[in-house]
Structures are given as structure tokens and as C-alpha cells.
Specification:
Layout: E1 7-9, H1 11-19, H2 25-36, E2 41-44, H3 46-57, H4 66-74, E3 79-82, H5 86-92, H6 103-115, E4 118-121, H7 124-131, E5 136-139
Parallel strand pairs: 1-2, 1-4, 2-3, 4-5
Length: 140
């Protein structure tokens, strides 16, 4: 496999990775390669916000508080927090092409574009946007 860019985990990817759920072979191979090359798997701080929303809405059963779950993700081997910047937040409102309005997804896309990252996700909207060539994404 050719060297890929660093990876940015979508919230769903982080949850499934932490639970040991099935991941698509292409995503698993890219994450394994990143690990072998000692490149971090990036986890956006927006994921902490999304975990809070999921807990509040009862959309995800969590064994611990969202802050503890987020910290547990960061404790996974090779996972590193990806800070947000004013530029990324502004860019998330100015994305080219047609992208849906979910602010977290827009922030993930803007982060990946700004830092030359590939998003690992199951989110069909992000994957469709990637097919348009505006960002790289791998299905997980």
C-alpha cells in the first residue's frame, strides 16, 4: 500500500475502534500502516462535543461520562487530540461545493483540508463529499 496521509477519526470511527467493532479492510490497513510508521491517529476536539450531544440525547449508551469516554479514546495506542483553530472553524463555514449543514462534520472536513488529513468515517455525507474531490476520506 502506498503511504497515505495522516488520519482523522470521525466520532463514529473512534467509537467503533474503541469497541473493537468491524472496520472496513481499507481503513484497518491505513490505521495499521499509520501505527507501523508511528504516525498518530488524530481525534478532533469536536468529537468531545459530539459525545456530549450523543449522551444528552440518549443516542449512545456510554459506560462513563462523555469526558471520560473522550479521554479513553485518547488513551488508545497512537491516538492524539487534534486541536481546533480559528482558521479551521471559519473555513468550516466556507467549504466549497455541496456539503450538508452538520457543524461537527463541517469542522472535521475543514480540519482534514487544512492539515492534509484523510477522514476515517462511516458518514455517507462525508464520503459523498470526498467523492467530489474536496477532501480525502476512507470508509470504515
Amino acid at each position: 500500500m502506498a503511504k497515505t496521509s495522516d488520519l482523522l477519526l470521525d466520532t463514529c470511527a473512534a467509537i467503533w475502534m474503541a469497541q473493537g467493532a468491524f472496520l472496513e479492510p481499507v481503513a484497518l490497513e491505513a490505521m495499521t500502516q499509520a501505527s507501523e510508521e508511528r504516525r498518530p491517529l488524530r481525534l478532533s476536539l469536536i468529537t468531545a462535543w459530539e459525545l456530549g450531544l450523543l449522551a444528552k440525547r440518549g443516542k449512545a449508551a456510554m459506560a462513563a461520562a462523555p469526558a471520560a469516554v473522550f479521554q479513553a479514546f485518547l488513551n488508545l495506542p497512537g491516538v492524539q487530540a487534534q486541536p481546533l483553530t480559528a482558521e479551521i472553524l471559519i473555513d468550516s463555514s466556507l467549504l466549497p461545493g455541496q456539503v450538508h449543514g452538520d457543524p461537527a462534520d463541517r469542522i472535521l472536513i475543514a480540519t482534514a483540508r487544512a492539515l492534509d488529513l484523510t477522514i476515517v468515517t462511516r458518514d455517507r455525507s462525508i464520503l459523498t463529499y470526498a467523492e467530489s474531490g474536496y477532501v480525502r476520506a476512507l470508509p470504515c
